Here is the input.
Amino acid sequence: MMPTANLSDPMEPLESLRSTAGARIEAVASIAELDALEAELVGRNSPIGAARRGLGTIEDADERRDQGKAINDLATEVSAAIDARRATLAAIEEREALAADRVDVTLPGRPVRRGTSHLVQSTIDEIVDIFVSLGYTVADGPEAETGFYNFTALNIPETHPSRHESDTLYLDYGEGTGDEEVLLRTHTSPMQARYMETHEPPVYVVVPGKVFRADEIDATHLPVFHQIEGLAVDGSITFADLKGTLAHFAKEFFGRDTEVKFIPHYFPFTEPSAEMHAYTKGQWIELLGCGMVNPAVFEQVGYDPDVYTGFAFGMGAERMAMVRHGITDLRALADPDLRILEQYR
Amino acid sequence: MKLTLSWLEEFVSLPTRDPSALVEVFESLGHEVEDHHVVDPAFTGIVVGRVLEVMPHPNADKIRLTRVDVGSEELEIICGAWNFEAGAVVPVAVPGAVLGDDFEITRRSIRGVTSNGMICSEIELGLGTEADGIMVLNEDYPDSLANIGASFADVIGLPDVWFEVNVTPNRPDCLSVYGLARDLAAYFDVPLRDHGISVKGEGELSDISVSIEVPDLNPRFAGREVSGIIVGPSPHWIRWRLEQAGVRPISNVVDASNYAMIEFGHPTHAFDVDRLGNRIVTRLATEGERIVTLDDQERVLTSTDIVVTDGASPVAIGGVMGGAATEVSDDTSTVFIEAAYWDPPSVLATSKRLGLRSEASARFERGADPMFCHLGADRVAQLLEEIAGGTAAPNAVDVDPGGIEPWTIRYATSETARILGIEVDAGTTTELLSRLGFGVEGGDPLEVTVPTRRSDVRRPVDLVEEIARLHGFDKVPDRVPQGPGLGLPVRDRKLRLLRDVMTGAGFSEVLTFSFIGESDLDKLAYGEGHVVRDGIRVVNPLNESEGVMRTTLLPGVLKSAGANLARRIPSAHLFEIGRVFLKGAGKLPEQPDRIAFAMAGQPLDTWIEESRQPDVFDAVGVWEMIADKFGIRDASIRPAAIESFHPGRSGEVMIGDVAIGAIGELRPSVASAFGLSGRVAAAEFDLDALLTDRGAWQFDPPSVFPPVVFDLAFAMEARVPAGEVIAAAVEGAGDMLETYRVFDVFEGSSIGEGQKSIAISFVLRSPDKTLTDEEAAPIRKRIAATVQTVTGAMVRGDV
Here is the structure.
């Protein structure tokens, strides 16, 4: 008996599909074509879809199961080939797209405007931070000051040359004379007296700020510059504390191998007084003035000089910056040229 | 203080002549050496010779032939100078000697006679300016007589070392060779020689009387009369030393006074006794009294000036300058050498008021040694005996009513440890102080007697300094004390934040001088009477164009921008933080902190980006960022016409209802006055409100729910400020408003003449649920209603 069913063997188109699918998939050149082929090969209306629908007509359970498995195996096989091809095509398409989207990355970047803090200001900040880390605080005082705080409270005698108009800029303000006369502070030291008047020991404070002198502008003088004053007053401060603190500062600011030496000097508000010199970049350089607070200053502010001792120092921020950064002409620090400012990193 | 080593060596034998070693010693004593150099002779091969015979030159009238003993031989030398005869001891350049850099002396024939060298003048030897005649050493350098044939350089003390020492103002005692020699002797622990001052005093008794009316201002007046003087040039050694000391030689009488002052530090003054008479009275001047001083200026005195008088009229201003009427002249034969002590503040006041500062007044201002007066006069008298043929009176005049005596300080050696941080025992302390000439007695505490030259030493701590100087700071150990750690105050932290914000926004910081001038305010277009015009003047400005303390930071920032543009830097964004100075009610001017910034110029296009000019909204954006970073929630801009700014593109910077400054685009005429072109955005405002502590900002947890986003466009009259519309919209939106964005603004025809439209996009979000469009609808309505109520602006289209 000829099985009539053989004429329409549902597996026959699948065999043909199995034999041709691989080549067709490999032949596809785009993902769009592959999507169409996928529908044709494994979609609802594909021979595989038709064969799945035909499964229901098989009565024999075993045969149905066997055929079903054969269909699924084929579908899995074809789908895997399609997925593999899709991945390949995606990679090719991405490569082509990226190849077309190419720039010369060695061109300069989109400009971002850079701003810099002034070197003198960042120098002040750095120096202040060194002392803050030693437990100091920061105070600030008036730039227009009275003769009392700028001179008298600091034990600067009437006869001292710094009071001359050739050194100090006086302001036409108020009626005061002598101690009451208003001037532009010539140093940050007036804050020593102001701070001690309003604070009890222990005092550990630094005072950065602008100071003024009647100096013509040249490579080593500006009429307006910046100082950082320091003051430490406590029960047992000695010159050893001054030396140790300032030597520590010099190492922090100029480098660990910076050597310092102290040579005697004169300031009316300290006794003994000294200048600290530092050995940096192959030479000794005068860095700052310092000394033990003169008992006369303590008496002015009502501290008992038999109970308290202290040290004070004052340094020029511009000078510190010049020594550290190799600037030889002070005028560069007063120049607003952006070619200078933008070097202040 | 300029001096030479050889002069110091007259008073102290130093263990070294090495210049750099001596510089270090000076420095360790507190005498900074400003400059120093070795004084080498400007010659080689010059020997001391004695002229044996002077003969006419056979072939010439103006030159002579000499025979000179140069020790090893006798040389025939032709000489053109006529200031000597046989017996003169002279410097001789023998063949092979070199003058200056390369003038070699050779045997050569002069008018047919061989000259075997050259007899030299000062100027040829680089030892002075005297070109008339050769140097004759017999009297100027008596040692030369015994050294015929010796090196001339040795005889005059070359090579030498020259120092310029900066003597600190507290050490007037070291404004002298002897004073510095004393410090060096103490340092090296070698003896200081006696001053060696002694007057022969072979003249007649002087009858000059001195009386002092104001002993507190003139505590001592000493002097000595010297007669028989012949005024003329000083010997070379005096002139040479004066020149090395920076003093111009004038005549033996003047030079003797200057020489003694540099040598021992005490200023003196010589009166011509024939013009002075025999009576001296020192007193306060009467108001309006006049004197013609040595510089031929008539000086009008006041009743606080102290004068030396001849009993009637002033002949000198005490300690400041002598008078012309009693001045020593070429035919003076008798002088009275005054050496007084004047009250330092009085000398300072007079010299300052008269604008008359001299070497003498500078020394009296700082304080001379009252106990040295008579020696000062005697040293000059001694020199006049030696170099001017003078005969000093046997009696000195010395009126000493003031009685300035050495004082004592009780010194416990524990003070050394308390101040220096090292122990120096009583024995060492006694030794160190004694070396400096202090009298020291007793155990511990010590009784220290301070010499009157050391007016700077008054308290125990002043002795600590002396001990430190000699003992050396290097013996003090290092110690680093820790403070209580109060840290960086709010103000400093806020200023740093502000700098970070500005630099992050692309601005570079400038620090300009605190002075401005009228012309700067003219440029800023401020009218007369404006507060900015009412600046505080500097009494003694460095230049008149910068004679006022700044009342605004803008000129500094704008000039800085202009300087950059002038240097072809296309764009400058700059800021400055600093103080202005304003008249106020207090003793001191008000000095508020401010910031100013400016955006000027236009960057050049790059390959990737076209540039644009800055405008007001760039400046406003910067202000918004500052306000945001400082937690200021009520910041705004209020339209205003401000002098320096474009009236339609500027406003006041507001915090709440308080205007703190101005912001906008500069008026074009102002910009061009500062060398700027195009639009320039700028601002200046007070920082007080920014530098105060506003407490910590509080966290706002972001909602995880989806937002409702909608746009509303408002129509209104063009004059209504957008800021009011936005503020009303924000108020109407309430708590659900997460953010908003103005995305479209236009004016004009499409909406109607004189009208404008502002479109705002709103993002609403609930913190705890998904907001529905239905829930958002009433909020939209509330926004519309609030905006309409507050500003009159209507929503375009449906709400």
